[in-house]
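Collaboration report, partner site 2.

Our partner group contributed sequences for two proteins of shared interest, and the home lab folded both. The records are reproduced in the order in which they were received, starting with the first partner submission.
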Amino acid sequence: MAYDPLLRIVLGRDCAVDVETSSFENTALIDDPACFPCLVAKDGGKVDGILFTPENEIEIERLTYFAACLGVYPLQTQDGKVTTFWRDKYQPHQEASNSPHGWSVTWGAIALEVTQEIMAYHERRSANAVNAGLQMILSRAHARVEASKGVPANLRSLMQYDQIEVVQQDSPHAGFFVTRDFQLRHPTFSGGQSPVVRREVFVATDAAIVLPYDPVKDRVLLVEQFRMGPYGRGDIRPWMLEPVAGRVDPGETPEATASRECEEEAGLKLIALEKISSHYCSPGCSTEYFHLFLGVCDLPDLNTGQGGLETEHEDIRTHVLPFEAAMDLLTTGEADNGPLVLSLLWLARERERLRSAA
């Protein structure tokens, strides 16, 4: 909360907040979550911070709501000045740096995105409901920060995000996933402006997807699990064959996610990662962005196995099959999701190179 742009969003002020520096004895900062370090008791510890005086009860209520959404609570001094967020227990393995500059470089942009989304729910959703979806809010914020970096525009138009005029915006659904409803105008290729158009978008996160491949034994691993997309469409068989996949957590690289998910879903240690592509899966209606990899590894002889985390209610079956059998899935149509089709086609192109280097 010592970050002025963030504090202004929480308080709803357009102007800077008057603060005074202070130190808090017998305390430490912990990353819980890393994006928002909070105070805990620690004998001999010391944390530098700020004090400020809220202008009214509304500001105190907004601050308290924001803190509750993070699962903490604001600590107030006897004279009414608010210090920072507080958590009861100390977890030394999660201790954070006491450097505001270092924090803002790493987390500042993500924290502002998270704060904007949380405070948009003020007076609309309970703090408990927001806190239950905090990890998804963090991941959506991470995705927005990554998206702002852009990709090359050697062929596409140089028109940019900030040239779009938003007339009205709403979030008709905000749960584990979010939908947003926009009324907007955008530049046209002829140089004018479009009429006001209404567009809805499904707001998801970035995901890392990896096809495990053993170039020595020339076999791949697929995971099978129940999927809501096919079920919602009415697919008679809503259990899908897929590469390993998982959400990119805030502050995590897609490569780190790919390695982590291979361990969690299939018990695999990757030897190397080959980048296949980064792409939108359905840009007409979804923000979801895929980072697709091939993971070089040593695959077991077991044809089928079990994987997944119980804490995430994952019920996953793994299949190890020869390259030719995997390619047959393209012919029969059993490979019917984009990342699997794309990664198998990429593997077919690069297979000889990978096998020669093994």
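Second partner submission, folded after the first:
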Amino acid sequence: MRHPMLPLSETARALRDGTLDLMQLLDDVRTRMHACEQGFQAMLPEEGRFDRLALEAQSLLERYPEPAKRPPLFGIPVAVKDIIHVRGFPTKAGSALPPEALYGEEGPVIQALRSAGALVLGKAHTTEFAYFTPSPTCNPRNPAHTPGGSSSGSAAAVAAGYSPLGLGTQTVGSVIRPAAFCGVTGFKPSWGRVPTGGIIPFSKSVDQVGFFTSDVPGAALASRVFCSCWNVAPRSESPKVLAVPEGPLLACVDEKALAVFRAVLRELQSLGWKIVAAPVLDDLAEIRALHEALAAADMASAHAVWFPQFEHLYGERTRQLIMAGQSVPAEQAGAARASMAFLRTRLDGTLRQQKFGAFVCPSAPGAAPLGLSSTGDPIMNLPWTHAGLPAVSLPAGFIDGLPLGMQVIGGFNNDEALLRLCEELQRDIVRGTAAKAVS
């Protein structure tokens, strides 16, 4: 290996100005994948992957010979979750259904990716239809453990150094949780900031596109490409006040992970951050029930054409979810959709009224579970996703060598300010001494 993969913003800058040779970068990625991919299985196999990429890279170089005119993601190889349609690639969605049945046209996300000059490294493994049936992907930090899900392959591809940018989706915790388990940065923007056309839906009411990068500046660069009306000067700066949702949510965190989280907060406090308790989400159980009913109903609707034809090809957990969704009354689903806006208003109002910079909590109840039979519990992400608030997972500590994440949640449609806050927060977490292994 000639050099490690640089973070997204640095790689993009070097490719644009020509200090990093695009063909050399692709050669390094090929070497890395040849050495690691059999063990990690982040990407769906593709015959002639690097021949294709070499031709696309050459075309890109010919189209943009002048560095000053190169687009923001010029030459960046991107891992794309395999529920997102990409021209020239079958979409399998982690399922046994025939890809021709699942065919769909590219949507705005991939069109934006191409316009920004990026290259599609390939399709990344996902759990079946972005639910819980695991993919074959292992965690690059420790292959005996899950990478999380459902955006398993996209998170693993970034963690393994194949790509400085991975695309995923989140319906409950499918970006934030794998980012934490794989030790990378994950960002789920506010609901509606990124269009979801051209993607096989799990829940049209909730689904949101998100990104995996190695750091916050990379997430900000990706956001300028994908998010609607991105403002490099946010509408407001977030104060250095972090609100901890004490109560039912933190009660879901295991003892070791909670100890690391508290230690990171103490270190941040010593670096000038104010940490306050916020007694929110006392109705967590009710929020969870509403969210799960809505997701099931929407999944049943999304599969209304495929399921009668191919029920025998669905995994058991997905099949059970669809069948449960078929029995959710329309009134219940409607009430669950209304509860999303209500919770958003409530949490957003708390942030503004109390002048909190963000809510913070662990990104998952603990480190990545052993084995590949479970992708982990998304409960730490569920209420924030239900509210549609923007969320970031920052690497923050370890348990027995496995990474943990700190989830940082901002105000609705104030994603720009959240990322600025997280950039400072990430620097201070790295500076701190609390992010050490706990055994």
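Feedback sent to the partner group on the second submission included the following. The first strand starts at residue 77 and ends at 81. The mean pLDDT is 96.
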